[in-house]
Amino acid sequence: MRHLTKSLYKTGLECPNKLYFTKNKQYANTKKDDTFLEALASGGFQVEELAKLHYPGGILIEDKKSDKSYDYDDKVLQTNHLLQQDNVVIFEAAFKFENLFIRVDILEKKGNHINLIEVKAKSFDSTNMEHEFIGKRGGLVGDWKFYLFDVAFQKYVIEKSHPEFKVTPFLMLADKSKTTTIDGLNQLFRVTKNTDNRTGVECKIKQLDNVEEQSVLTKVNVSNPIQGIEKGKYRILEAFDFETSIKELSKAYKEDNYFNYPLQYNVCKHCEFKTNKDTQHLKSGFKECFSKQMAWTEKEFKEPNAFEIWDFRSWKKLEESQRLLLKDLDETDFGEDKPKAGKMSRVERQLIQREKAISTDNKPYILKDELKEEMSTWQYPLNFIDFETSTSPLPFFCGQKPYEQVAFQFSHHIYHKDGTIEHAAQYINTTAGEFPNIDFLRALKESIESNEGSIFMFSNHENTIINHLVEQVYVSDLPDRADLFVFGQQISKGKKDTPLIPWKGYRSMIDLCKVIKDYYYNPYTKGSNSIKQVLPAVFESSPFIRDKYSKPIGKINLNSLNFHNDKIWLKIIDGVVEDPYKSLPKVFDEWNDDFETISELDDINNGGAALTAYGKLQYTDMGDEERLQIKEALLRYCELDTLAMVMIFEHLKELTENN
Question: What is the spatial distance between Cα 250 and Cα 6, in angstroms, rounded to a whole number?
């Protein structure tokens, strides 16, 4: 029997059609198969293990070591046996009703009353709960919808399989109003491999002496929003109330039928069932939906469509008229926004993208004079910086709260007025258990204060991190507290929600991504403003960049802290420009293929991979040589991020200086 689990129910709520593609291996799926890696990056496994320490004596429903397949009935049998006790706490309790199957993170039974406790790494503030789950307008807050429907689904299965029990639903979450009295709390849960090569978690602490002071987790009763879901007040699938959604999704999944649910363009845009060059041998669920429901042929799939439009907001209007191809859209479909003097507004930029896509014009659009005026305010030498950061739901130190920002790496390139490019500095701290923020800020201060030039970031992430570091320094007793505080404020702008008096530093970072949005559009990006898309687009469009970076870096006045002088950044293979991020060496490129790694990392060429790598370094016990290889891969990736900013700047300079 095909069992609809809580994760599959969530998938069905996203889009019922996905259930048909999920378990069918002939369809491509871009989502990671290893959910443990996702839990690792988010700290989810730590939170789950800490939550169990709230309930000493809890009994885990374990897999049988001899099992070669998942034994649903055995787990239900074990659970039912334990439920015969008047009072019991069960971890991963299993329940089944018809073809519905769930595992409950923590189940607390007292007589005929059950507390259903779903553990999540998501944060909340227990001191400000008025509109946490239900917004001011009476609807479910968007960030919580799927979590709450998950709990409602579990409650439904328990009550259907055991109507004798009264069930109260809870979420256990990281509480940002709480601190811990335990130093190194986040290091007490380690990723391990057993002798049978299975990944698991080893808990270095066996009990909590004082849960309220040591743990940063809080259990929250969510009966009110769950009742609203059960009564049909709140929906995710507009066509179905809660119980109907369960019955319809379970029936479709059991019978392995394509649901034929109407296309939801804002969901379709992010569909994971698409093929790419690595999965061309598989089927595309995305294509199948549009072929069946819109009668699209290969011709339509090759034409530009609204999914490519940056920040498009009129999805409902297009759904109702079943239009998606850009040639079928007119200006009214894009809505209106306020014009921006001397800059492209959102809608203006979208219309430029539409026009160029329809006419197959790949020439960049640029507000040349306006950009030139903007660039004239920049002071040489120009500083380009990029940060790699992480957050941990469990604090590093005693007295810290959950989800403190961790700044573990930066890269700094300098572009001098004579065109010399210097990889001036880099910082990285991958030591397990060390909180790097203050050393990070000190190293950044030393490097940035080597000159008085303008400072650039790409997107607002770096400004957000500096804000956080400024706040940390403000409440510290560091001997250099004043110097670090002043430096942080000099290079940043205070956010609206800062607890300090808002500020704007005289060297506040310039957002190169915003410069791109305001003055420049490149059709090769297909609407994306990610640096991972803008850089390859620049390679396609710029004769100057193509000529310069097709040479070894040792011959173009460019030094590097991580690459040899013979490194070439721009390569053209079979007439196609190679994405420089894809050209980064694999983490263990130089290792013998027979050598087994603990981390099981492959590439570090995007922010998600860097975050996962840092998580592995923090919570996995591995040898020094493996740690070194990961560290060096992180340094290479971060260097390319700031060099990419330099290349984009050079392209803008090229455009504004040439006729």
Answer: 11
Q: Which helix (H) or strand (E) holds 471?
A: helix 461-474
Q: Are 412 and 425 in contact (CB under 8 A)?
A: yes
In the chain, where the domains are located: 6-255, 265-361, 371-454+522-659
Q: Is 202 left (phi over 0), alpha (psi -120 to 50) or beta?
A: beta
Residue 416 DSSP one-character state: -
In angstroms, rounded to a whole number, what is the distance separating the alpha carbons of residues 294 and 255? 24
HSE toward the beta carbon, residue 12, CA cutoff 13 A? 31
Closest residue by Cα to residue 61 from 46, 47, 87, 81: 81
Average pLDDT of adjacent 10-residue blocks, the chain of 659 residues: 93 96 91 59 81 96 69 94 97 97 97 97 92 93 95 98 98 95 88 58 88 96 97 95 97 95 95 90 96 96 95 93 95 90 94 96 96 97 96 87 93 96 97 93 98 97 96 94 97 90 95 97 94 94 94 92 94 85 86 69 88 87 90 96 98 89
- What's phi and psi for 412, nearest 5 deg? -140, 115
Residue 362 has φ and ψ, to the nearest 5°, of -95, 10
CA 273 – CA 256 distance, rounded (Å) = 17
Tokens of 214: 């040591």
- For residue 128, give the amino acid letter: N
| CATH code for residues 6-255 | 3.90.320
